[in-house]
Amino acid sequence: MKIKKILWISFVFVLLSFVAAASGVSQESDELLRQARVVFQPLPSVMPSPKDNSSTPAKVTLGKMLFYERRLSASGGISCQTCHPMSTYAADCIPKSIGHLGKINPRNAPTVLNAGFQFSQHWRGDRPSLEDQADVSLLSPFAYANANYDEAQNRIKSIPGYWELFQKAFPGEKEPITHDNIARAISAFERTLFSSSRFDQFLAGGKKVLTDKERKGLNVFLDTGCAACHNGALVGGMTFQKFGVVTPYWKATGSQEIDQGRFDITKREEDRYIFKVPPLRNVSVTDPYFHDGSVNRIDRAVKIMAEVQMGKRLNEQDVESIVSFLGSLTGTLTQEVLTVLVLPPSR
Amino acid sequence: MKIKKILWISFVFVLLSFVAAASGVSQESDELLRQARVVFQPLPSVMPSPKDNSSTPAKVTLGKMLFYERRLSASGGISCQTCHPMSTYAADCIPKSIGHLGKINPRNAPTVLNAGFQFSQHWRGDRPSLEDQADVSLLSPFAYANANYDEAQNRIKSIPGYWELFQKAFPGEKEPITHDNIARAISAFERTLFSSSRFDQFLAGGKKVLTDKERKGLNVFLDTGCAACHNGALVGGMTFQKFGVVTPYWKATGSQEIDQGRFDITKREEDRYIFKVPPLRNVSVTDPYFHDGSVNRIDRAVKIMAEVQMGKRLNEQDVESIVSFLGSLTGTLTQEVLTVLVLPPSR
Question: In terms of DSSP H, where are the helices of A170-211?
Fold first, then answer.
C-alpha cells in the first residue's frame, strides 16, 4: 500500500515536471519571439520606390537587361553582375571587387539582395539611393569607367534593340536613353531582389522554424547587444556606427589599410571610422566580411565584432550559436532572380 | 463570239502562267533545299562525348556550377562566363576578352553554344577537345591564371558544398576534386549548350520557314562559294583554312596586328595565317568578327570574306541577302541555358 502510494506520487511528480518543463520551453520560446519582434521586422513585401521612379514591368525588364549589360562600360567587360553575381547571392566572394581592366575596388561589394530597403548604399553610405549608386558607377574609374555620361548613353543608343525597350519603360519621353533612366531602370530591377528567409517565418509566429541551436543563438545575439545596431527588417542597414568602438578595428581584423570611413567624405572628426551598419541578411553566404573583406570566417567576424564594438570576449559556444542563428538569415533565391534575359545584339 | 473566245484563251493562258510560276517557285525552292541539304546538316540532337567523359545529370549540374565558379580563378574574378555570358549568346561583344586582372586575351572569344560539335576548339584549333580547352584555361595567364593545378583544386576543395557534388558526378573516385574532373564536368555542361535555329526547320523540309530574302541569301551564299568552308551542321567549325587566300586579310580588316595563326603552333610554313573556319551559327548576334574582333559590322565581314578568300566583289544587294540568310542561323536560348545555379558558399 505504501509502495503503491509512493509510486503514484512519483508518477504524478514526474508528469508535473514534464508539463512544467514543456510549458517552460514554450514560455521561453514565446518570450524569445516577443523579444525578437521588438527589434526585428519581417522583410516587407514591397521595396519602396522614390517618387520619380515608380516601378513598372517594362522598367523592371529593361533594368534587368541593363544589370547584365557590359556595353554600358568603357572596356565592354563590366556590368552590375561583375560585382553582384546572382549565383553567389549577388556578392562576389572576394575581399574587393575587380573592376575596370583589373582595377581593385576600394571596398568589399555588398550583396544587392534586399539592398533597396537600406537607408543608403555603399559602406560609407555616400550613395543616398539605388539610383544614385547606379548612376555614379557609370563614371567610377573602378566600375564602368566611362569618361562621361555621353559615352555610356551613346553606346546604348547604338544598339537598336534598346530603343523600343526604353520607350516602353519611359513612355512619353522623346529621348529616353539617358544615364538617369539607365540608373532608374536598374534600380527598379534591383527593387525586385527580395530574399526572405526562415527568420521571417519565425517572426511571423512559426516558432518551430528555427532549430534549438538557432534559437539559442538568437538569444545570445540579443543578450550580447548585437541588435543595438543590427536590427529592423534587414538586421542592420539602417544606421551609421563607428567600427571599433572599444578598440581599433584594424588591430582585430588585421586590415592592411586603415579606412577612415565617412570621415573621408565629410571631413568631420566625429565621422572617423564611421561606416554603415551592414545588413546581416544572407551574411553566412556572402563572405568575406567587413568593409575591406579582411576576414574570411564568419565565426571570427562574430568574435571580432563582440570584441571591438562591445569589449566582450564570447566563448566558443556562444560564437557557434550566433553563427548558427545567422544561418537562419540566408534567404532563398527565386528562379526569377537566377534567370538572365537575352540582350539585344550590337547591330 | 470571237471576243468571248479571246477572253477564254486569255483566261486559260493567265491561269497556266500562274500554275507554271507557282510550280517554278516550288521547284526553285525544292532545288534550293536539295542543294542546301548537300552541304548542310541540321544540328544533331546529341553532342558527342569522349569515352572517358560520358554525360550524367550529376556531372552536367556540377559543370554548370563550375562554369560560373569564379573561385576557380587566381584572382577570384574570372569564370567561364566572363568570356561566355549567356545573355549575349555565350560570347562577350568585345574584340578580345578581358581576363585575369584586366589582361586582354590574344583573340576574340567565340561562343560556346554548339561548340562541342566542332572538330577542335579556339581560333587556331589548338585545343583538341572541350576538356582540353577548360583544363588549359585554368593555367592560362589570360584566363584563370592559376600558378598550378593545385591552386585551383585546393580552392574548390576548401568549399565543403562541392565535396558531395563531385562524389555524385564522379562516383567511385576517392579524390574526385581534380583539375581533370573540373574540366570534364564543365565540358559535360557545355555539351548541353545547343542552339538550333529556323535554318534547321528549313533543312527538315519547312521551306516556308525562311523568308524570300533569306532564301535568296542562301542562294547567293551557295553561289558565291562560301559553303566550300562554311558547311556541315555548324556552317563551319570543321576544317582549317587560310584567312586571306587571295589578299592578305589584315589589309581588308584593318587588323592592328598580324596574327600568324597556326604557324605559331606548328612552325610549319604551310600553317601561316591558317585558322579554324568559325561556325556561322549565331553569327548575327556574336559580333565583332574574325579572330581579332577587328570588324564590327556583319555586312562588312561578309564583303571582306568574299574579297580576301575568293577575290569576289559582292554588290550591296548580295551582301544584304547573305546577311539576311545568316540571321536564320540565330538560335533560340532555352530557359535552362539562361538560368544560373546557386553556388555553395565558401565555408
Answer: 179-190, 198-203
Angle at B59 between CA B53 and CA B65, to 5 degrees: 130
- B-chain residues within 8 Å CB-CB of A75? 94, 98, 102
Task: Report how far Cα A237 is from the mean position of its chain's Cα atoms.
Answer: 8
Q: Which three cell numbers stand for residue B193?
A: 549548350
Closest CA to B331 of B83, B43, B123: B43
Question: Are the beta carbons of A98 and B85 separated by less than 8 Å?
Answer: no
Q: Which long-range contacts (CB under 8 A, 24 or more apart) does A134-141 make?
A: A134/A80, A134/A182, A134/A183, A134/A186, A134/A187, A134/A190, A135/A179, A135/A180, A135/A182, A135/A183, A137/A80, A138/A72, A138/A179, A138/A182, A138/A183, A140/A99, A141/A100, A141/A103
A76 to B87: CB separation less than 8 angstroms, yes or no? no
Question: What is the nearest CA distance from A241 to chain B, expressed in angstroms?
Answer: 27
Task: Check: CB of residue A320 under 8 Å from CB of residue A299.
Answer: yes
DSSP assignment letter at B122: S
Q: Which helix (H) or strand (E) holds B10?
A: helix B2-39
Burial letters A53-65, b for 16+ CB under 10 A, else e? bebbebbbbbbbb
Cell of A252: 582585430
pLDDT (tens digit, 9 = 90+) per residue, A274-297? 999 999 999 999 999 999 999 999
Distance (Å) from the alpha carbon of A89 to chain B's nearest alpha carbon = 8
pTM: 0.92
pLDDT band at B207 (very low <50, low <70, confident <90, very high): confident
Contact across the interface for B298 and A335, Cβ inside 8 Å: no
Taking the CA of residue A341 as centre, how many other CA atoms within 13 Å lie in the half-sphere pointing to its CB?
Answer: 17
